[in-house]
Write a structure and sequence with these properties.
Alkaline Phosphatase, subunit A, 605 residues, 2 domains, nine-stranded mixed β-sheet
Length: 605
């Protein structure tokens, strides 16, 4: 065999090795040569070997497609990691149909250097002349066998390890191995294998509380018989509440509403890969989401004991409003599971004054308000779930909808756009509240307003944005600032101005609402009544590495793809040394999340 016959093969394996090495350094900041050689590279090399061995014709074209496909995976993973701070799984292929709605975000996340992943696709063209009649070296079979042996060992080893955090697991066991393990776990229904069960009493003890029967809660029934409105606000973070910029309030209408509200300022998001749709699931079920896969992608269609269904038994009619395609994030599956009697999406809500992904929030709220008279004549009480859309990344608001006069340094900055979009959302929430007052509904209602998830996160927040955020906040932008969302309960003559700093999560919304409405229940939920319990333990399995927790005094970030574990004081967000108490909370969080998976499994495929 001529030396030139072997050279193309050596070059394509070399290109692949370089690309895998760059990917590993970029994603995991891991530079161990032997880890790349023995764990990360062999599985990719095995795939390439198989491609080469089975290809009979047009080998050059097949090799080029293979390398382009690998480059695309690395490119997409890089962008995904920048935005979500976790690596995607094969589950996320189910989300490719959503990419048209986030194309602007993808453009913002990428930079010219990322396209170097496709450099070998260009270089391979230079080898085209050597592949007209390629001669496969006999050694290719030995390469394939060797790579198969090494890959088998690493995969078998990986299968024995628990996946607490996908990114950290991939760092330790290999990117492809992590995908194989997730696929295996899902196919055998052992992704979060658990038969853990906790009674309501045990659950509260785990959180550090003494259990109290729901009907004995001091807040039980204070809003009994009232209409219920939940306003879930896109990307609303807690740090904007009561803040000003050049003497301009970011949320003047919410700030005004605080004078007659119970405001919980220490509540955290708990969404998974489904982001906004996951928030809808959590808030309306009191259950955790799936995590690495949007919960809506896994729902079996089985009816859940949701807020809408519980309230229906009390004579409520339910409706949900979201000015987007109902198939987005599989809400056409989610809403029947949650049991809404009326669903309003872009098919019913006027498709006018489009901003970003759909009609502006003003159109949404005006439409919801217009439906109230009919609903009031149809049902004894109404439950309306309103999900806003305009303040979605990348936060680009038309000039005629901008209410802030931004300082020059904030113009065209991500933080500036974010504050502008939140100010707009606040304006429309204020207008809707006024409509309720004008119609005499406000004094007969319980209204909950909550953010769905963070907006200022990932690599879109530049160093300059970080500097501006620090100036705006008066301190460095912390994980607490990033993941805390405001939650306030209001309504005519219900609450006096109250701010409560006790820890909460989105799973606490439904049980708190049921207690306020005077509705007892016998089905399990992961959250509890925030008015009753002072202690809490909140788990997160997305955005933060798996195993992270937020406890009433501590904020623990588990080790991830790049960074080591860190323990913070929740109040000050100063670093603390890991102690026995933290180890107990880590164990308790694992128990908590196992129980959460047990409850969720009943409703997923």
């Amino acid at each position: 065999m001529k030396k030139t016959d072997v050279m193309p093969y050596l070059l394509i394996f070399l290109f692949l090795f370089i690309k895998v090495s760059v990917f590993r350094v970029l994603i995991f900041d891991a530079k161990s040569f032997w880890h790349i050689v023995l764990i990360e590279f062999p599985t990719w090399a095995l795939l390439l070997s198989i491609v080469l061995l089975v290809t009979k014709k047009k080998m050059y074209r097949v090799v080029w497609i293979f390398n382009f496909f690998v480059s695309a995976i690395f490119f997409i993973t890089t962008l995904y990691m920048r935005y979500y701070t976790t690596i995607p799984s094969y589950y996320d292929l189910q989300q490719l149909t959503q990419t048209s709605s986030v194309s602007n975000t993808i453009t913002m996340l990428s930079n010219p250097w990322d396209f170097l992943f496709f450099l070998d696709a260009v270089l391979l063209f230079s080898l085209a002349g050597h592949w007209k009649n390629p001669v496969k070296p006999v050694a290719m079979k030995y390469v394939a066998v060797s790579m198969a042996a090494i890959s088998s060992i690493t995969i078998v080893y990986a299968l024995q390890q628990p996946i607490i955090d996908v990114s950290y697991f991939a760092k330790e066991n290999g990117f492809l191995q992590s995908q194989v393990v997730q696929l295996y776990n899902r196919s055998t229904d052992t992704a979060h294998a658990s038969s853990s069960k906790l009674s309501a009493r045990e659950l509260e003890q785990l959180k550090g509380n003494k259990y109290v029967e729901i009907s004995e809660h001091e807040s039980f029934g204070v809003a009994e018989g009232r209409h219920l409105f939940i306003i879930q606000v896109e990307s609303l973070q807690n740090f904007v509440i009561k803040r000003t910029l050049n003497d301009q309030e970011i949320t003047p209408h919410l700030n005004k509403l605080l004078s007659e509200s119970a405001y919980f300022s220490n509540v955290f998001q708990q969404v998974g890969a489904g982001t906004t749709s996951d928030a809808e699931w959590i808030i309306n079920t009191g259950l955790y989401p799936q995590g690495m896969i949007p919960t809506t992608n896994s729902l079996s269609g089985k009816r859940v004991s949701s807020l809408a269904r519980v309230l229906k038994e009390k004579g409520y009619g339910s409706a949900t409003y979201h000015a987007d395609d109902v198939t987005f994030w599989n809400r056409d599956v989610l809403y029947p599971v949650l049991g809404y009697e009326e669903v309003f999406s872009i098919e019913e809500i006027p498709n006018v004054k489009n901003v970003g992904f759909g009609p502006a929030d003003k159109v949404l709220f005006d439409f919801a308000a217009s439906e109230l008279p009919r609903q009031l004549n149809t049902y004894d009480q109404i439950y309306a779930n309103i999900v806003t859309l305009t303040s979605h990344t990348p936060f680009e608001i038309p000039a005629d909808m901008q209410y802030l006069n931004l300082p020059a340094e904030y113009e065209e900055m991500y933080i500036g756009n974010y504050l502008q979009s939140i100010r707009y959302a606040d304006e429309e929430i204020g207008a809707f509240i006024q409509k309720l007052k004008n119609q005499g509904i406000y004094d007969e209602s319980l209204i909950a307003i909550i953010g769905d998830h963070s907006g200022m996160h990932g690599s879109l927040v530049t160093e300059e944005d970080q500097r501006l955020l620090s100036n705006f906040l008066g301190h460095d932008y912390s994980l607490k600032d990033q993941y805390a969302v405001p939650l306030l309960f209001t309504g005519g003559n219900l609450f006096e101005k109250t701010e409560m700093t006790r820890l909460g999560g989105q799973t606490d919304v439904m049980p708190t609402l049921l207690a306020l409405l005077g509705i007892d229940h016998d089905f399990p939920m992961m959250g509890h009544n925030l008015f009753e319990y002072k202690k809490n333990l909140v788990g997160m399995r997305y955005y933060l590495p798996g195993g992270s927790y937020i406890q009433s005094e501590q904020f623990y970030k588990a080790p991830g793809a790049k960074l080591p574990e860190v323990l913070y004081d929740l109040k000050t967000m100063e670093k603390r040394s890991k102690n026995g108490e933290a180890k107990k909370h880590i164990h308790d969080t694992e128990t908590l999340m196992n129980y959460a998976d047990t409850l969720l499994k009943e409703y997923t495929e």
